[in-house]
Amino acid sequence: MDLSKDKKFVEKHGPDAKPNSLIKNEILKRTHNNEVPCAVAFEIAKELQESADAVGMTVDLINYRLVKCQLGLFGYQPKKKIVTPQPTVTKDLKDAISEALVQGRLSCKSAWDIATRFEVHKMKVSGACEAMGVKIKHCQLGAF
After folding, report:
1. Tens digit of pLDDT for each residue in 78-120?
2. Most distant CA atoms of the chain, gap in Å
């Protein structure tokens, strides 16, 4: 998500979209400065048994910003993105990433699944993608 102050995230959902009131209340209770960290969004989704994209949409509809992506791809100051290319990537990790690509891109969900399977931090997978020149698309929260 773009961190510009004037961005209206609500616009990407159309005029008839309405925020989920339960999700909205949890967001308002747990966040500060109109920002929702990725990890908090996923905690809310899990606790309310809602989908991640429903939480992301509610974040947009109340014009809050998603920050601190767990893959390091957005929401950090001052650079926005903090992920860096891994200096070395094992063959097994390269193969797992390559096998999960759809149209040359890795989904956020696939990146998380690979991190779980290899028992590594999510940012290690996104760093491997950076080293391999692979873009991660289709954020589970709808940020990108």
Report:
1. 989 999 999 999 999 999 999 999 999 999 999 999 999 999 9
2. 47
